[in-house]
Predict the 3D structure of the following.
Amino acid sequence: MSAVKPEIQSVHFPAFRGSLPSLAEKTVVITGTTSGTGNIAARTSLELGAKVLLLNRASSRSQASLEQLTSDFPHASLHAVECDLQSFASVRKAIQDVHSLCPEGINVLANNAGVMALPDEATEDGFDVQIQTNHLSHFLLTKGLMPLLEKAAETSGEARIVNHSSVARMSPSKKLKPEYFEKRGGNLGGNGASMFFGGARWKRYNQSKLANCAFTAALHHKLTASGSKVKALVAHPGLANTNLQTTSVEQGGMGRLFTSWFMKMSQSMEDGAMGLLSCMFLPEAQSGEFYGPGKGTFATKGKATMFPLEPFYNNEQTRELLWSKSCEAIGESFDI
Ligand SMILES: NC(=O)c1ccc[n+]([C@@H]2O[C@H](COP(=O)([O-])OP(=O)(O)OC[C@H]3O[C@@H](n4cnc5c(N)ncnc54)[C@H](OP(=O)(O)O)[C@@H]3O)[C@@H](O)[C@H]2O)c1
């Protein structure tokens, strides 16, 4: 395990952290906070005074991370909500729980959780495990929490939906393919694990991370057209030293030796969380913006900077494809 995750020091995070505003009176909902960027986002939100809801699947990891945060922030308004993104039933239950816990509304929803290069397996709903975890369940969650986001936007002047993408959005084709969003889990190309030569595990991950961007673009257009004060933004962490690659190695999606070497080129998980935190909290961040360590394929580390949504997913055809296939998958319309 430690062979995969090297020791990497933060370079930019301490100064960046000092630039974030107080979050007193703000309510923040984050998926996937047991480790990595979601854990940093939760910790930072608590330090800044927010009420924080942690949406995680039940596990010893979620229990341990909850205990650690509770011990580090004994006076915080901290709430754990069970939410397994591999199950639409679990997401629907989580939506109900968040409504009960947050009658005041939600200022920020961070759709952060993700998995990478997992085997070609179906969820209980029949979709690919990566596509449902990384995109479809976040689409359903966002729909269910939209009334709370609108409520906070009315009282605070704005609210934010933040999706977490990757440089993987750009490969191999930059084209969203409808079949990945259909009930074809377990039948979507097999278990090829080649990151650079079109392995099917990576194609499914690429599609899920392209979907995060297309979802942001579609949300941005719909929210703007409706006159909503809810903003939609997207971030990427570059190559960050989290548990993502560790899990991929355990699941056969990456080689241990290669990953140990590759992760020496990563940035710390705190530096990797700067794009996500910029979208969540920077006062100047606007709807339709992308934050990360640059916009090219090699933008793997550095300060988070802003760049616009990119044309290969921010176009009418892709936005419409994303929306219609996602609604079909969750079996509900999502009207804005
Ligand atoms: N690290 C990188 O280099 C990198 C690069 C590009 C993009 N990203 C993106 O960054 C985001 C955060 O990942 P990370 O790097 O911080 O990895 P991480 O340390 O592995 O964190 C991922 C989080 O997602 C949660 N998660 C996974 N499956 C879930 C499910 N079914 N239901 C609920 N939660 C689930 C994990 O919880 P469990 O403990 O339950 O598994 C964990 O809390 C992901 O969207 C990822 O695609 C990361």
